[in-house]
Design goal:
The structure is a homotetramer of 315-residue chains. The longest helix of chain A has 11 residues. With 315 residues, chain A is of the alpha/beta class. Chain A has ten helices and 21 strands. The relative contact order of chain A is 0.22. In chain A, α6 crosses α8 and α8 packs parallel to α9. In chain A, β10 and β11 form a beta hairpin. Chains in contact: A-B, A-C, A-D, B-C, B-D, C-D. Chains A and C meet through β3, β5 and β10 of A and β3, β5 and β10 of C.
Chain lengths: 315, 315, 315, 315
């Protein structure tokens, strides 16, 4: 893929003009799930909530919420991706043994944050403090996170809802920087006749993903998304995860007065709420499948920060 | 992780003594799902089959069937794995912007076939012919498969069953080379009171995975598993996928008269049936959770051969 | 860099029309340096030849013959390159210890054959037979070559000469497909008043490298270079290595009747002669530095096929 | 290779007890070679100095000063290395075109700081300030250094000397933590009858490299090497580079009162002097080749921090 040469500076221009906010690490980071908790809102998943999610399945239709990741996938910052295929032990052609067995192996070389992904609780911090008061100097190592790694996350099975924000705004795609706050979110839930419930996965449909492969530079330079108030509102609803068909889920350029990826900070370190990026919400919206059973399991890379994902929606 | 220095030759000794078998590429490879099919047994998944799987959920308990992948994971052949964590744009400490945002990024450098994985239909061939008569020279490129790539696979949602072979054999772990053929498989289904149905995911529990971290060399040098007749039997049942808590699912050393990974050939290229390796079957067996809803979605790496997975079992 | 989607097929069109040539592996591959030899023409280097090369130094001026390798470097086939910088153990800012030590580490993820490179004797074969009758099935493994690896190559110190072919052809750059055969090579040596001597490194200046960053697609799709007869002529002169300011040193499209990279085959497997690609010959030619001391040492990656290089010319 | 699980903490224990030293970024970092300089002591190389080095060659004997880098190479911290060999476009066996051309390609996935290496001027900093007052926040990006990258370094051709410290200490290998300061260095130069001259490459022979493959854990946990006073002494001699047959060139455990890799700080950021690690000094010492022509060119990876090297000594 083409290397992203958009520096972080582009996103910081407005934010840097604001006065630095003092943080008392002790005041905001203590998790309601206890001092040793590493999974945040995944604690909301119970056998009862899973049963309830399962009961949402009425037709058996499934939706792949993940899109493709390859070397052309537009991604944030310096991220790159390469796939290599080789055939170990088979040079010279032919197959192995009497039944002439051939095999291909594959190799990844690249940034995990490329394409459809989940942000684990080790992804975002506030002044060097991450979820549940974990200081980065204590748990981040160059070969993996010692705490908050994605391998800690249990199966994410929940009720999922998709909110069609293109219907609310009348635009498709919704322009970059458009923020979804409490007013807009409530408008969508009302229009669709769905509630946001505790433990839900809430996905926002913006149409932004349709720019991929057509206007990659525009795609990765901004996006519509959740605003600061919207993030606080979703947190008040105790959701499990917030996702969108955008690369970063929050409004970029950031709203006036909002810090750099501050919505990420509100969701992840401050509330242990997961973020799902580049979700393929279009087919759900096309079917008016407003609520569904959401199931996500991803490769448990020890010490990983994010994961490339393909959640399944079933209804 | 320690590099595997076990050459493929170790597995070929017996096999090489056998006469080469002539293959008529046309006779075996035509898929019953049509000349353009790329997904094999995934065609068995229908809304009805998904509904039926969903109805198996009675308690809401979930099981992560994937284990961890890291640099110490024992893996076949030359495979290696490394994870790198970095903090782009944040050298010099502190966070970005007024709310002092920190972030970690992660990078994979390694073979996909490390740990819990699915073998896609582009993984195994017979004399240079892969599933549905695709010749490797036509579809395999060094930067990705042009056909049969894992991105083609739809959400894998099905009824899953686990067969406790340790109870059948009386051994835990079952010794390497022990083959499960029709007799053993039927014994297990009978003992547990479960049937193998069309479209099922069938997992074999052998106890082999318990060797990881204790006897890695032994672990990766052999395994109990499905035998040739067993593979044909499972195929006759039209299963979606066959998995086990072993690295390769089939009996190694191979049975007498059986070719190199011939069970892989019977399942994957000959019948478009998926293979799931290093499945964490222990907890299912401990709960006597013989049947369950099986849900698997994995990152859609364009042109990929395998994927690192963590399927979810729900019952 | 942008993935090269130029398939090998583009280069094979003319070649494929030719009848396959039968090869008797025994007849061509036996090395004059003995059955165990793994270094080919590097055997030509002796203390005497090194002394002679050293005596060519009259001014002390040095030239870096290597150019830069990065993600934008145009390269053959599916090759890609990525560099990652991280700061292990230093998250949270500041330095380590009382003197506040900071450090950056770097990581390569990419194909070696990107940019200025040397082709080792394990790079090219003829019908599965490589230099000195080594069959690929015997020495090629997925994690390194067991023979002919670049770590075997001794320091390459020799007399070097550069032949300005732009002066001979009157074109700069010389058009793709232009072949340098005996006539052209002799014309250049005569014009410049230099001889090709045994053990020399012979570099061809074509001006082709100037296309990089301007016409990358054209650059990588063809090139002027050594023709088949030219290769045989150079071999008859017992040179150590042949290089050029092109990506592949030989004329592409291949000459009529010449096989796919047949010049590579004549030089490398058939005569153990090294190839140096993307050599920065321009400054030597600008200074009319026709002969010089050539010194090349590269990282000894065990089992490597090629190496990224920056040879030094001194005169 | 086996992952290094030696945390940086092991090296910091003594150092952390010391009071932090205040640094005035302005006072120490201004380079004598001017505000825009990026190559430090490489400025000492002139045509005259190169001529003088060349004249040291009396016999034409060459020495490869680099050792092998592979997955088993013991390396500092989280560093890992993997090599992958593939054969793009050649699945199904046989060669390409009428002359049946085969080729192997290779791929690196790993940390550059593995094995014989040079530390560029972007490798080490003091309280976020690097060579010539470059602040890391200004020039370090995740995909390459914007200044001080190794591609800036000109050919390193100089007089080289090797000091046999095993003869001075009477031990081989010299025990870890043994520091070479002015007294020891002068003893060696006197014993050998060589002077340290301006622009020299000074290599220390300790015997430590002989532990590789035998006592890897001990090898990478400490080393004999240059002490703080020794570093200042070498700087006063205006050397080009300091190297050794050790992984880090300086005494580890650090001397009492010396900071974490403070010798690296004195050499690299404070004086723009290069460091060469894991140099194969044994053969030079065996031949009593005290002085020699030193030639080093390495692949110019744009924005690189270090490079894997194989310098050539000629005498």
């Amino acid at each position: 893929m083409m290397q992203r040469d958009i520096t972080l500076a582009l996103f910081f221009a407005a934010a840097l003009a604001l006065p630095a906010q003092a943080q008392d690490p002790q005041s905001w980071c203590k998790s309601k799930w206890g001092a040793n908790d590493e999974i945040g809102a995944a604690n909301l998943i119970t056998p009862e909530s899973v049963m309830a999610a399962t009961k949402l399945v009425k037709t058996g239709k499934t939706y792949a919420l993940g899109g493709e990741t390859n070397s052309k996938t537009p991604a944030f910052g310096p991220r790159s991706w390469a796939l290599v295929i080789n055939q170990p032990g088979q040079v010279g052609g032919g197959g192995l043994g009497p039944t002439k067995t051939n095999y291909n192996d594959d190799i990844y070389m690249g940034y995990v944050g490329t394409g459809s992904q989940i942000d684990g609780l080790g992804h975002i911090g506030v002044d060097n403090v991450y979820y549940n008061c974990n200081k980065n100097a204590d748990f981040v190592q160059a070969n993996g996170l010692k705490k908050l790694g994605i391998e800690k996350i249990p199966p994410l099975v929940a009720r999922g809802i998709v909110l069609d924000m293109t219907a609310i705004t009348g635009k498709n795609p919704i322009p970059e920087g458009t923020a979804f706050n409490k007013k807009e979110i409530e408008e969508a839930t009302k229009r669709q006749g769905v509630e946001i419930k505790k433990g839900d996965v809430v996905l926002f449909h913006t149409g932004w993903l349709s720019l991929v492969g057509k206007e990659d530079k525009r795609y990765i330079s901004g996006e519509p998304g959740v605003g600061k108030e919207g993030a606080e509102y979703l947190v008040s609803k105790e959701v499990l995860a917030v996702g969108a068909d955008t690369w970063g889920v929050e409004a970029v350029p950031f709203e006036k007065g909002v810090g750099v990826f501050e919505v990420h900070q509100i969701l992840i370190p401050k509330n242990g709420t997961y973020i799902l990026e580049n979700m393929n919400t279009g087919p759900l919206v096309a079917d008016r499948a407003w609520e569904f059973m959401f199931v996500l399991g991803f490769g448990k890379i020890t010490g990983g920060v994010q994961a490339i994902i393909n959640p399944i929606a079933i209804r």
